[in-house]
Amino acid sequence: MGKKENLSVLLVQIDIVSDDYRQNLSKIEDFIELHQAHNTLIILPEMFSTGFTMTPATLLDPSGEQAICWMQEMAKKYASVIAGSCALLEEGKYYNRFLWVLPNGQLHAYDKKHLFAYAGEDKAYTPGDKRVIVSLGGWKFLIQICYDLRFPVWARNKQEEYDAIIYVANWPEKRDHAWRTLLQARAIENQCYVLAVNRIGDDQNGLHYIGHSGVIDPMGNWLTTLSNQEIGITFALEASELNAVRQQLPFLKDADDFLIL
Questions:
Q1: Domain containing 157: what range?
Q2: In the chain, N or C: fewer CB atoms in 10 Å?
Q3: Which residues have a Cβ under 8 Å from the Cβ of 43 and sit 6 or more positions away?
Q4: Phi, psi at residue 171, to the nearest 5°?
């Protein structure tokens, strides 16, 4: 793999309006426009266009087509990769699908593996069964969605497969301690950066969200200030710190072997 470039990242933490993709997409675009300095990678929360819904068939955009077209337009307009998850319909099945959209319109996708049965997500959506790692500027990113965070085997970084994990989420305030702690754990045990994007506000089920999106370094340190407001968080990923940690503390080479069945 080629030398890693320094990447400018924008994390967009918003109050998602339930099933109003027009308002949500307009709000996100305002944040992207506000941070006019070029961002190589722009990351949005889980189900950024609708909020976390267990009734995808009733959505104004049940196929996710409007959200996909918008992502392609934004990626082209801002010459950036746009990433986030949507509720999508494909061949009669609904997926909580993470989309990685390139400026040329090309898509890479990851379907959420660990569906949140506690809220009935396993009844509404079909799980994925493949890990997805994408590349940008010499960096490799593992894609994960919300509940995946609780399952460390799914994120295990054997033989330095990736450099950073992206977690997008609708993770409520009542479990905020777990959110912050598990994000740090994933960074430490995998010696990688973690880029985490959560929502704020209240959803249609009365759950309250306080965001706490941000960037964590390979030693488990938060590098950005935690906020419970609508905010765009910018950060520059630099390879020097990642390389230093892995060279000085080469723990990954001693990781256990395992198979994901």
A1: 7-252
A2: C
A3: 9, 10, 11, 12, 83, 84, 166, 168, 195, 197
A4: -110, 115
Residue 72 inside a domain? The answer is yes
What domain count does the chain have? 1
**CATH label of the domain that carries residue 69:** 3.60.110.10
Asked if residue 2 is part of any domain, the answer here is no
Q: Given this model, what pLDDT does residue 158 score? A: 87
Contact 187, 215 (CB under 8 A): no
Q: Under a CB-based contact definition with an 8 Å cutoff, are residues 171 and 150 in contact?
A: no
Q: State yes or no: is 146 an active-site residue.
A: yes
Of the residues 86, 112, 121, 192, which is catalytic?
112
Between CA 246 and CA 252 the distance in angstroms is 8
Kindly report the average pLDDT of the chain as a whole number. Answer: 96
Residue in 86, 113, 121, 146 annotated catalytic: 146
Catalytic (active site) residue 91: no
> Of the listed 46, 86, 113, 121, which one is catalytic?
46
Distance CA 13, CA 44 (A): 7
Q: Assess if residue 1 is contained within a domain.
A: no
Q: Has residue 258 been placed in a domain? A: no
112 is catalytic: yes
